[in-house]
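[09:14] KT: can someone run the structure on this one? pasting the chain below
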Amino acid sequence: MEDISVFMLINYIFQLLFLMLGAYYFVISVFSFIPKREKKLENIVERDYAIVVAAHNEEKVIENLIYSLKKQHYPKDKYEIFLIADNCTDNTAEVARNAGATVFERTDTQCRGKGFALEWMFDKIYNMERKFDSIVVFDADNLVHFDFLKNINLEHNRGHKVVQGYIDSKNPGDSWISYSYSIAFWSVNKLFQQSRYNLGLGCQLCGTGFSVDLSVLKEIGWGATCLTEDMEFTMKLSLNDIKVSWANDAVVYDEKPLTMSQSWKQRVRWMQGHADVAGRFCMKLFKKSFKERKIAPFDCAIYLLQPLRIITNGMITVMAWVQAIFPESNLVLYGLVPQGIWNVYVIMQFLWLPLVLIVEKKADKKLFIHYFTYMIYSLTWVPITIVGIAKKNKKEWFHTQHTRTISINEME
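[09:31] RB: done, structure tokens below
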């Protein structure tokens, strides 16, 4: 009897956490379908951009990225491409120079990782004779839509100091893993980023395809050198009352991992960084929110609880499926939430995301095949999150290999 009581208590806790976090995210996501009234721009100022790419042994893909940047539908004298050849042992620097980038070679075996490389490069840009308005960051494996700078510039002209672009997939059809990543990013773009932009909340930086005013970097500093430097800097911005805006038409194509092994390592690193940032920023953001009565830092703090939501969502999903398959089982879901609600939850798990992807015109025949494997991918977040939290104090950085030599012309 004691075992059943303990199980009931754990069950109730999971259900309560799931209901609170799930309801919050769902209500916010609905606003992604309610368009925001955009400020009409009469005189558009063409700002100067320093484009920064951090690269470690990326000779196979860097040329295609630089080509897509050189072909931007934006005045060529209004931006310059800088590449950081970070601890490279291949021909990345040479390939990038030949493609037209200004290359800076960095060798530092102690402070390894993208965050350190960006901070190193930002300091150099501050002291350059040429003065830029904003810095745009890309990963070496990206391809950039020809209108990216034009659309990012529109958001800056609306008064936003930090702008995140739309992260699309460069290789969704390569494997079930890459397709699962693609579904995840497509849904985040719509349900997470677009909804917060429409509500006037702060969006989240995604590590690539974002632009930051130089004045912001000089004022608060970069200082984001953990395993998830983008998340760390987002929280730092929120504490300084600076919101991340969203440019839905500024598209970046990102290369997704092909195998579960690559995916597992990358996502464990993400969760290590997430847990690290949550430990350092979550309470500060909640305190700021309640003290100053501001919703934006509260929303960022809730986002930092994402690992908790992943674990509870995973556990509830498994229990809901067991309950749906074996309705006579009374030891799975009971007491707190009526059975009918869990049945609706199971149905919504199937229908909500595909409907969103159809609206976003991301649905094709492969979606209906891979959506079931996407559920498997989603459930793997549970052990990955647990491992990431357990290893949050480990700062070891590793390189994800990129090999897909796709050109921007093929994507467009």
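[09:33] KT: thanks! The chain has a mean pLDDT of 88.
[09:34] RB: yep, looked fine to me
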